[in-house]
Amino acid sequence: MPIQVADGRYDRQELISWWNQDRLRAARVLVVGAGALGNELLKNFALVGVGNIDVIDLDTIESSNLSRCVLFSDDDEGSAKAEAAAAGVRRLNPEINVTGHVGNVMARGVGWFSRFDLVVAGLDNREARAWIGGVCRRLGVVWIDGAIEGLRGIARTFVPEGPCYECTLGEVDRQIMSLRRSCTLLSAQQIATGHTPTTATTSSVIAAVEAQEAIKILSGRPDLLAEPGSAFVFLGETLETYRVRYEEDEYCLAHDSYAAVKPVPFENDLTPSALSRSLVPTNECVAVEFEREIVIARRCLTCKSAVADCRAVSAMPKADGQCPECDAPMQLDFRRSIGADDRLFTTPFSAMQLPPDDIVTIRSEDHRWHVILEQVG
After folding, report:
1. Backbone angles phi, psi at 173, to 5 degrees
2. Distance (Å, whole) CA 154 – CA 162
3. Has residue 276 got a pLDDT over 60?
């Protein structure tokens, strides 16, 4: 009588000829968003055995999330989505190393994203998508985007070459984003443009497509991807699907690449001036460029009062968007680049409240250096 050998946890999927469970086990994936899509993504990654997962979300669980989020239970209401989702992953598969991060993804240091083999998102606003798309493009990290509305959804993979997320935006999209960034200080909740109708079924479909493409990449088979830089569109009402092929905008400002990034300790007294002297051989620094807006002043358009500042906009509380004199919204004056004659040139990076692992670029006339400000200790 033949001996029965017990199947391993991943036995059935390992029967797929190109599947590489060892690579999945060693992979590190970032899931951005722990709502309906994020829950399905995390569930899929846990079940197939992606070994290391980070999930980030700034929100807390409401009653309406319980009908669309498989990892949440009634007892989780009021808890942070990222932490509850991470706990749910551990229940599904104790072999997975999973970490939940509570906060706004756009407030994280850009260098943090270089730790991941892949970024997969389930977001609901243009600003966060554009920000993640630009970061991943510069760092050479593949990212997969998903979105749902009602019974419809879309999934698309963006690689470091070809069309990017910003290439898909129209002029109206860009105008809305520009207006919102240049106006008053918006909280992350305000940037999200309201509640979007979603269902658990559509979330499952789109997240499954995202996860399937992610598995191909993590298994070392990017050749199996279903045309990067295009979109899979699902119409749940009629069960129709089709693809949208994006054109690359050769003038897209998001198309940049960091060939090499040098780590430098993020010490309290480190200034742009000192950093540039250590990197530029001829001491001819032309500019220091930041990955985020640095607010230099807040101006009230109502009473005309002004407040000097020198902080990253991502570090500013919502209250600072209101005038201290008349409580009206304030307009932010910010910079993404400074020269050697700017007052911020001798201001410590720590005073600007840049997040740990953020990247700054030192530029001379004919060269540039990209630096990760690594957290000390």
Report:
1. -55, -45
2. 19
3. yes
Give the residue with greater pLDDT, 49 vs 253: 49
pLDDT greater at residue 25 or residue 282: 25
Average pLDDT of span 51-59? 97
- In angstroms, rounded to a whole number, what is the distance separating the alpha carbons of residues 217 and 160? 13
249: left (phi over 0), alpha (psi -120 to 50) or beta: beta
Q: What percent of the chain is predicted at pLDDT more than 70?
A: 91
How confident is the model at residue 188, as a pLDDT? Answer: 42
Q: How far apart are CA 112 and CA 358, in angstroms?
A: 7
Show the tokens assigned to 228: 């990067």
pLDDT of residue 68: 92
How do residues 294-345 score in pLDDT, each as one tens digit? 999 999 988 988 989 999 988 888 888 888 889 888 888 989 999 988 989 9
Q: Are 173 and 113 in contact (CB under 8 A)?
A: no
The four Cα atoms 228, 118, 97, 32 give a dihedral, to 10 degrees, of -90
Please say if the pLDDT value at position 281 is more than 70. Answer: yes
Residue 359 to residues 56, 110, 218, 292: CA-CA distances in angstroms?
20, 6, 26, 9
Is the predicted pLDDT of residue 191 greater than 50, yes or no?
A: no
Task: Show the CA angle centred on residue 58, arms to residues 175 and 350, nearest 5°.
Answer: 80
